[in-house]
UniProtKB/TrEMBL annotation:
<dbReference type="Pfam" id="PF05147">
    <property type="entry name" value="LANC_like"/>
</dbReference>
<dbReference type="InterPro" id="IPR007822">
    <property type="entry name" value="LANC-like"/>
</dbReference>
<dbReference type="InterPro" id="IPR033889">
    <property type="entry name" value="LanC"/>
</dbReference>
<protein>
    <submittedName>
        <fullName>Lanthionine synthetase C family protein</fullName>
    </submittedName>
</protein>
Amino acid sequence: MTSTNPTITAQRREPSPFWRQSLASGAAGIALLHIADARAGRTPWPEVHRWITVMTHDPVTADTTAGLFHGAPAVAFVLRHAAHPSYVTALDTLDRHISDLVTRRLAVAHQRIDQGLPPRLGEFDLINGLTGIGAYLLLHRGSQEGLVREVLAYLVRLATEPVFVNGRQLPGWWTTNAPNDRPSPQWSGGHANLGIAHGIAGPLALLAHAAILGITVPGHAETIDRIYSWLDHWRSGTPTRPWWPGLLRPEEWHRGSVDQPGPQRPSWCYGTPGIARAQQLAAMALDHQHKQRAAEHALATCVTDPGQLALLRDASLCHGWAGLVQTTRHVAADAGPDSELAALLPHLNTRFTQQHPHTRQPATGDGLLEGTTGIELTRHPTPGFAWDACLLIASPTTGTPDTEGIG
């Protein structure tokens, strides 16, 4: 994967601006991998320059479709991790556009709340929405703290003010769309998404990160507690085998129990790992040690459950082994060196290394979320390099990357 010639890749793909500026599946994610490899001495720094050139070949998208994993925020996220003086001017320009983008998106979101309408997932989620852009802003909070607070205030409102669907009250983050964020007759009443990638666990993780860093807004702690309690209510299974559903239909929400027969795959995006990390961060923000231990225990039972692990079909970061391992590393680090998870981690790392070439489904391309880039970043950690801040699982103490020069 490393030292790939970007010109050859570009010719093979006939890349679009979307691919070039995609952190999820394109050149932006691949550039991030090369930065990590260069910092660890595995790749020469000129290779980083070449991939950043590929990423920025076309005008960078900064319209309302841009989010952390595509367009200006994605490109800025990568350039901040490159941390080179030659990118300072470009970052200043990008940040001005991102500030305008956030202001516009917040205005639309608040107008939607004022009208009492349910949101699209892409309004608030981590992948496409304001939670993801807020995660980027939090990286360099010194100059953007005011805008970070505006995003946090919106998330408080999202979780506080209910919506009404078919005459029945539902939480403010309930969407009337299908899981693909489009209307569908199969999802006529919409759904609640609990996952960290597209659901309410993402806003919870961002609110917790900000609180741990000392950045709060009115109603902040109460909102963290409210979302934690929602997730706690929907924890299913048994005390020795807890799990969460990724999605809830209206009838499940109103009844207060799930129809689903058992655990889904233990993925970062929708499964127990991402939700447990969000709950752990929330408990840390509120200094609730009992709740923190409960979240950590939920993940520990997940990584020791052969039935749940058997549901993983690939090695990817989004919904495979890499996401489970990377999330567990962070949960274990905050649980402490004497924790159950810390003891389980070496075996899990070994199993990931052994499973990677033998998974039932190969990686989808060379992207970050579903391809080999995310797998390689997980397999070869670079100390002090928080590339996974985009997943909201990295340590909240990690701020703007340092300014180590590119050779």
